[in-house]
TrEMBL record, chains A, B:
Residues annotated as domain HTH tetR-type: 14-74
UniProt keywords, alphabetically: DNA-binding
The UniProt record lists the keyword DNA-binding: yes
Protein name in UniProt: TetR/AcrR family transcriptional regulator
The entry's DNA-binding region: 37-56
Native species: Amycolatopsis samaneae
Lineage: Bacteria, Bacillati, Actinomycetota, Actinomycetes, Pseudonocardiales
Keyword DNA damage included in the entry's annotation: no
Superkingdom of origin: Bacteria
Cited InterPro entries: Homeodomain-like_sf, HTH-type_TetR-like_transc_reg, HTH_TetR, Tet_transcr_reg_TetR-rel_C_sf
Amino acid sequence: MTSTTARPGRVAKLPPRERILDAAEELFQNEGIRQVSVQAIADRAETTKMAIYRHFTTKDALVAEWLRIVAAGYQDAFDRAETDHPGQPREQILALARFIADGLPAISHRGCPFINSLAELPDRSHPARQVIDQHKARQAGRLTGMCAEAGLPDPEQTAAEITFVLEGAQVSTQNGSIEHAGERLLKFVEGILDRHPLDAP
Amino acid sequence: MTSTTARPGRVAKLPPRERILDAAEELFQNEGIRQVSVQAIADRAETTKMAIYRHFTTKDALVAEWLRIVAAGYQDAFDRAETDHPGQPREQILALARFIADGLPAISHRGCPFINSLAELPDRSHPARQVIDQHKARQAGRLTGMCAEAGLPDPEQTAAEITFVLEGAQVSTQNGSIEHAGERLLKFVEGILDRHPLDAP
DNA sequence: ATCGAACGATACTGGACGGTATCATATGGG
DNA sequence: CCCATATGATACCGTCCAGTATCGTTCGAT
């Protein structure tokens, strides 16, 4: 019963900072950054605007923190791909494609947080931009490494191709121009990897 | 000398409606929709806010009109691809890829207007959304038609793949994660088409 | 010359929003 | 038991902005 911390009125409530981040994630993702007011985040987090400004210096800082969490999720996907398929770079790449493909239905009519944020934050000096830039660079590096490890002839080109495909699948899902984007995405990536068979032990 | 209409003080000034649309194109593209105020558009168009509201019922209507013009530009690219390479669907597709690839440097750090607008306008009832949806559907249809005409075994799949690639190249250029995106894009699309040779006379 | 429509400039309204100040209220460790 | 700290609630400020009203001016057609 009496847990050491957090014994709220009814349901176990998370501490305010996490509630705020959960609410921000939900609202930023579904309604955009600029459209969502700090007050709206506070309402959804069942707290107040003041509480938000106690944990985050500014709205922009909250946005950056949100994207940092999203980026960490993608990093986890990379890590899992590597630990689940050690020494099998092609399987790792396919696992990443599956991760994106599986996420498409959830994204549905609202797209990739990074793509959308970039559109909403043209100012290159915005704190969130550093998060995005770092994440994209790291992601590109890891993917290129996987392609090189897979013995593909031109790792940079193949990594670029896979990046195009993954990003494009998310965009096309968002604008609804492609049916069965997930399946098509997987089929496509498999085809790219099969162009240069080499993996078999 | 004395042209029939428009004899402005110094430089030949376009009529206000076109100046407004030019200014809107410039600002919406480079700074985003929500960030740009009607006043800012008026300033850049060397006119006044009032003049804008004489030509467009609302800011949203101006956004929609802007996207209509952008969509027409893409339609023109499709038309040119067809008339420049009649009966050669593979050349038509390559011409489209070249059109996108050539546009990448201009886009550079700011991305595709449709992708960005979608991010900034989550409200599906926004007038601009109809423009985007129609455009995307028409574009997908035409591309699928080209793929079918090219005798590719699975036109829907191939059209989806090419769409992924074209969209992804624009996104990747925007976030700066890929070097030489234009060249890589063309190489990629050529590879896709060459997977099923059939075109030669 | 004149009339009307389009254009330009300025001021205003009403609302939304980021951020702050100030109050009261828990809460948990000493 | 008590006090520092985190939290909650509310009111407020300055600013920005979409959209409107009203004025005067230009300019082309008749």
